[in-house]
Amino acid sequence: MSEEVINKVQEAIACSRKWAETGWPVTFGSRNVEVLSLKQAQLRPKNFVFRQEAVNYWNQAKLTGNDAADSGQRALDALNKGNFKAADNALYFCQFIEKPFAEYSKIWSPLYEALHEKLTGC
User: Which parts of the chain are beta strand (E)?
Assistant: First the structure.
């Protein structure tokens, strides 16, 4: 498989593992307080009513990002072995895992769509 495809998968894995660090705009509570990352959520004062909700959200983003990255690593391993069907399946699973955060993360679904035809020929 081309270096370009392998590089794109590697970049997606690295990015996915950092979802909770790099974050995206998310608001909490009736005042729509923006909390952009796990670190910001953890730094909110204990009396911030939606602190725990924000921490839980970003912890879930971290776990989900790592799960997607793990599947991405399986795709990368399959690509390196020339097993394109297994790579396609792993990338499909990445975009499935990403769905709850896809509006913000926008990594795996576009990558899967871009590579699916190359990997499967259809």
Answer: 27-28, 33-34
Give me the helices (H) in 18-50, please.
19-22, 38-43
User: What's the token pair of residue 13?
Assistant: 């894995």
Return d(Cα 41, Cα 48) in angstroms, integer: 10
Report the SS3 class of residue 27. strand
Check residue 1 and give its pLDDT: 54
Close Cβ partners of 111 (under 8 Å, ≥ 6 residues apart): 8, 9, 12, 91, 94, 95
CA proximity to 65, closest of 114, 5, 106, 119: 106
Counting as low any pLDDT under 50, the low residues of the chain are none
Length of the chain: 122
User: Which amino acid appears at position 80 of this protein?
Assistant: N
- Listed in sequence order, the residues at least 6 apart from 26 whose beta carbon sits closer than 8 Å to its beta carbon are 34, 35, 36, 54, 57, 104
Please give the pLDDT value at position 109.
93
